[in-house]
Design goal:
alpha+beta; Alpha-Beta Plaits; five-stranded mixed beta sheet; EC 3.6.1.7; Acylphosphatase; Acylphosphatase-like_dom; acylphosphatase; Acylphosphatase_CS
Length: about 100
């Protein structure tokens, strides 16, 4: 199976509701690697890398998010491998500082 990388932007009420922790935990549990962070515009940004079908399913899960979230939009785009370099050294999936 081919590995893909998607950069995902999630908009709505997604900050202050545990979205980053939920996304990191869920992504790791299904075997993905990458990172997630809040953005100053109120959105959450993530990079998801792994098998195509697993990444696609995770993107669908992002449309729901954790219980307290209210997701309005999820935008997923193909990303280059170098975006994974933002992860913390030695971590499979990182929660990064706000950008």
């Amino acid at each position: 199976m081919a590995e893909i990388i998607r950069q995902v932007t999630i908009r709505g009420r997604v900050q202050g509701v545990g979205y980053r922790a939920w996304l990191a935990h869920t992504a790791e549990a299904v075997g993905l690697h990458g990172w997630v962070r809040n953005r100053r515009d109120g959105s959450v940004e993530a990079v998801l890398a792994g098998r195509d079908e697993v990444v696609s399913e995770m993107i669908e899960r992002c449309r729901r998010g954790p219980t307290a979230a209210r997701v309005e939009a999820v935008i997923a785009e193909t990303a280059a491998p170098d975006v994974l370099d933002l992860r913390q050294p030695g971590e499979r999936f990182s929660i990064l500082s706000t950008l």
